[in-house]
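INSTRUCTION: Work out how this chain folds

Fields: amino acid sequence; protein backbone structure tokens

Chain under study, with its fold:
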Amino acid sequence: MNKKPIDAVWKLAGRSLTKDLDLTVAEVSHLLELALEVKRDPAAFARALGGRYLALLFEKPSLRTRVTFELSIKQLGGDSILSVGPVADREPVKDVARNLDRWTNGIVARTFQQETLDELARWSTVPVINALSNLYHPCQALADVLTLREHLGDLAGRKLAYVGDGNNVAHSLLLTATRLGVSVAAASPPGYEPQAEIVARARETGARVAVTNVPEEAVAGADAVYTDVWASMGQEKQRTERLRAFETYRVTEKLMSVARPGALFMHCLPARRGEEVTDEVIESPQSVIFDQAENRLHVQKALLLMLL
């Protein structure tokens, strides 16, 4: 087998990724390069993590995150075990962490609260990876910037518009894209904007960051337009209220026309077609949503190679 040299992988053993800023700009850039290499030549890495095992802890349902993490470790020569349900259902989180780190080489957790991930990372001696929390979705953002790079080339000076709920996806996009030189404009209804602290951290990068309540302002001149569901898992009781608040934030062909000609349409999925985005936009040639979904596999392979 034509095996890739391991010195091509930055050794970050023992490090965790609980939030986007846990990786430096240089590490993010290297991860994207490594993801592209893994994508081009997956067979070269097929035994790179032989004998390594991941614990997958999922408090929330998942399609893309669960399947891509399971495939990532398996396609690198390792394997995974899955636990579905509350992490601290029967015992303290710190006890869960100190059991799993005796048996596995890494913990991937999809949790309702960021505090659960932070607690796992505090007590675990093996890397803990955020597979989604209420505050961040770093693996999604990494796949998103990889997709932008594949379609747009150099990201410096590009503009990304985010329309919708200022949620975990919006937070991670703000923290990751701006560090690669992308300007980000977010449009949300009053009271649903991204957290001010996250916006402030994004602005520290020097990239242009705008927060508005007017979708057209955010989308004007954008190279890519991104949206997400209006009510995420755990917000079902707010659904009626959110549908009213977000009614004018739907991504339509008319809104896309305000962006640059040929602007990409992005969505982390699952999508509620007809709510946050029309079916026509999703099925348009500008839509790269399934490229984003595929790239979850490649960036997560790169992440596992770097952390394990």
